[in-house]
Amino acid sequence: MEAKPTESELEILSHLWQMKNATVREIHEKLAETKDTGYTTTLKIMQIMHGKGLLKRDEQNRTHIYYPAVDEKATQKNLVSNFMATAFGGSAKNLVMQALGQGNPSKEELNEIRAFLDQLENK
Questions:
Q1: Most distant CA pair in the chain, distance
Q2: pTM for this one?
Q3: Which one of 5, 86, 87, 113 has the fewest beta carbons within 10 angstroms of its own beta carbon?
Q4: Quick one: 95 exposed, middle or buried, by C-beta within 10 A (0-12, 13-18, 19+)?
């Protein structure tokens, strides 16, 4: 069973999935755009993530380069499954209804959702 990332770890992973790899400094600068966090906090979280198997790191240079050790889609699937089971009694319908009720989906997003539902029905 792969480790379940915390909210802070997931935020770091989302940056790394986009960037492919990065130093602690690069990740810290990304995080600092939206929140007030110390460099040492970012470093510590990334070290913990490495220990948990969420990140790998290239230690060949003085500055370590980190990259994700977990797949983005698989991680998202596991998190949604766990969330749906615990918060919505396993009901995909309740999860989707809540998500759509919280947001304000655009016409384009609603069309994509309809197309996805059609695709699911035709499997």
A1: 53
A2: 0.81
A3: 86
A4: middle
